[in-house]
Amino acid sequence: MEKMSRVTTALSGSMLTGRTMHCHLDAPANAISVCRDAAQVVVAGRSIFKIYSIEEEQFVEKLNLRVGRKPSLNLSCADVVWHQMDENLLATAATNGVVVTWNLGRPSRNKQDQLFTEHKRTVNKVCFHPTEAHVLLSGSQDGFMKCFDLRRKDSVSTFSGQSESVRDVQFSIRDYFTFASTFENGNVQLWDIRRPDRCERMFTAHNGPVFCCDWHPEDRGWLATGGRDKMVKVWDMTTHRAKEMHCVQTIASVARVKWRPECRHHLATCSMMVDHNIYVWDVRRPFVPAAMFEEHRDVTTGIAWRHPHDPSFLLSGSKDSSLCQHLFRDASQPVERANPEGLCYGLFGDLAFAAKESLVAAESGRKPYSGDRRHPMFFKRKLDPAEPFAGLASSALSVFEMEPAGGSMGWFVDTAERYALTGRPLAELCDHNAKVARELGRNQVAQTWTMLRIIYCSPGLVPSANLNHSVGKGSTCGLPLMNSFNLKDMAPGLGSETRLDRSKGDARSDTALLDSSATLLTNEDNEETEGSDVPTDYLLGDAEGEEDELYLLDPEHAHPEEPEYVLPQEAFPLRHEIVDTPPGPEHLQDKADSPHVSGSEADATSLAPMDSSFSLLSVSHALYDSRLPPDFFSVLVRDMLRFYAEQGDVQMAVSVLIVLGERVRKDIDEQTQEHWYTSYIDLLQRFRLWNVSNEVVKLSTSRAISCLNQASTTLHVNCSHCKRPMSSRGWVCDRCHRCASMCAVCHHVVKGLFVWCQGCSHGGHLQHIMKWLEGSSHCPAGCGHLCEYS
């Protein structure tokens, strides 16, 4: 929606009037430029080259410079500039490497004047000399800058930056012979047009390509630069070395920068991608823009202040095929929407909170903070009433002090360094981490690791001391639950007459422990015996005595009053817990002596010892498993991780995520996991636990986390033999064909941690170099250099 504010500015007898307005173009614009009387603007792009008149209420098209039946690449413009001394002179930079000048005073429809075809690649920028009418400067993708005299057909001088492509060139407003150029490698060069052989000064301004620059219209030595690192920097070029005066951090790559007229510390910027807005910054307040224009719906490609002495009107072109005039009075003020609260932790754990005085309730018990308990805690600068932002806001500062021993984070460092996250079975990882937590006094965490082991680990070995069953006299081996057993070399007379005898005085526990984790007994030969001639059933002795024996009982003469426990020859049937006590030898003996029992029945019910050749076989699986599946506890484990994370212990949440892996990861959304990983890695890096941090990044399965140790990592390596830079294709030098990572001690390729001397470039395995330097200070490679390792 258009805003109806209107401004009238008096400039040396002429009046500038207008409002915020825009017009639709036929195609996206790449650049714009304003004539010296501020009455017309030229818009150039790949498919558009027109001049518009700036009326009071609207833009009016005056001239279309794209004439001719056949489309020409000479009309595909990457940049355009209007001469500030001759209102009829224009220059364009074409994408095919041609520099074209245009004379609007020609009577014909075709206004093209001269063509300069000396560049081999796209021309990124053209610039007229501010006071010399016939001097034109161009910067190209081929890395060269050329100075043209419009009275001649060829360039008068060529400047080679010995670098990558030139992104911007600008003549100095105050120095007649000086111009600045920016390059894609982050360098800025200052040249004297009288000396094309070498630059006067060169310095690295940004971490990445420098896309634009602009000289200050009032301060002679101030140069503003903008780059892909999302920063705008202001340099003082009057000193011996370029001095950074101000730095503004933006949210996207800076494509254009223009100083605001009549405002010494204000400049306007627009982005190359992502951000469509135009910002006006006060370099003294680099964090919040002074003004913001939000009219465009696509990337802004060109900005220009309408008049060099009027700070109210800003023109812009965009890829959304629109041309806009912005009135500074209608711009939004981001500072009005800024959060007035601030929160920060101190070095010793103290918490400082700043807010508007109206939001902080006065408390009678609150004491003024002296700041001398543990100094230096923080420094509060006294405000200067003369500063422009001194009276905009006032705040109250509250400091919450921590007890001297209450904020210790030693447990965090010890836990991070001692935790085991991978490389062992799950049970060992849980036991180790539980032990670490217990030694550090974190009992709840230790108990959590123990519970995770119980939930997710397979049944472990239970010590025999916990078992109540044993086989044979004096045996300490536990009796397993099994589903088959065999007899080997059974005595031929073993039948209904054969009996198992119990030693007198044998004692045993009243209850039997039936645990699937009991140790299994194995037989040396797994041959299956088909049984004896007489059908015989077996049961586990459960009568009173010292130890358990295996009993053989004739089912035909079993005690009629007791339950019959029948075990088939092939396998155990599934049965419930034994409640009643089976008959023992004494009970059966009493029955045999009873007058109501015949002699044959008494003989049948009596027990005799089994032959020692009786044996048991191990089985493949247990009778039953009383354990719940791990998936049953998924919701409980998920809530447990969220509990630790909400309590601030992201270390525990991330460690469990890594140790359990896919067992629990599927129950937690990716965004939550990424947040936990990011928080934990940030804490590790704050405590300088770089190795642990890198291990956590490597073990993470989140794409956003796993690429953290791969992004923004630049390693420049020179060959230790020929001193030439190494290519990115590997560790073998392209020039001398020798491996750069060769250990000077053992003469093997270093595949792990590599350490080298910055003086002679020789190095090798860390342990080898340390051991070598313990006995000698000379380089192990024999170069004679005195190496040091600290």
TrEMBL record:
WD repeats lie at residues 116-158, 203-245. Keywords: Autophagy, Lysosome, Membrane, Metal-binding, Repeat, Transferase, Ubl conjugation pathway, WD repeat, Zinc, Zinc-finger. One of its GO terms (biological process) is cellular response to amino acid starvation. One of its GO terms (molecular function) is ubiquitin protein ligase activity. Residues 498-509 have a biased composition (Basic and acidic residues). Its main location: membrane. This is GATOR2 complex protein WDR24. It comes from Microcebus murinus (Gray mouse lemur). The gene is WDR24.
